[in-house]
Amino acid sequence: MASSTAPRRIRLGILTPSSNTALEPLTYALITSLNAHLPSTTITAHFSRFPVTQISLSPDGLAQFDLAPILAAAQLLAHAEVDIIGWSGTSAGWLGFSQDTKLCEEIKRATGIKATTSILALNKALELWGVKELGLVTPYLVDVQEKIVENYKGIGVEIGEGMERHLKVAKNTDIADIGEETLDGMVGDVVEGKVDAVTTFCTNLIAAQRVGYWEAKYGVPVFDTVTTVVWDMLRECGVDAKGVKGWGMIFDKD
């Protein structure tokens, strides 16, 4: 009698800003593609929210990313016995990358579950691809954008004049209303700055599904922050997703 082997099951626990309406549908769409590509693996995503309503450097805006509420949300994901926890957000871009390193350490300490983030994952991709000049597309305010540029310069990644575009939006629910036509123009503008890669840097931008189009048009990798965290979570779980189609060159390298 022939025996059958059940697919390996991977549960991804994803921390989500409370006002985000983009990352969950995009993550589900990506995971549908991954499951079609990996018939011996079944991947599911499970979400936990904590309060985030605005993106700014105001005291209230910065306080949203204090560790306590994020850790509380992570502990709820631990109840589902997820294999890894990912923060699908970009706050370390302006708070400093060490903020996400500390968050992952605290999640592991509190839950016993390893963790990663959109930004730590993005930075791994930039290193893997040898990116020194980065195109940055965000919806953010001027001062937030400036902090992101400064933090990347600190790790040797230049975002020079002509390599960034931003829309000066603070209210998070407004970000998900930004359309593909606007994003097409922003990505096209930063590519003209002769960059090694582009990042669409905000998990409430509906951009991940457009990455394949931009890469085919411009011939440079585009790293979307909804995708980067899933990519790195799978790598940390030992899942080889190389070759999955429709979500960018990030899946073309080991």
UniProtKB/TrEMBL annotation:
Gene3D superfamilies: 3.40.50.12500. This is Maleate cis-trans isomerase. The lineage of its organism: Eukaryota, Fungi, Dikarya, Ascomycota, Pezizomycotina.
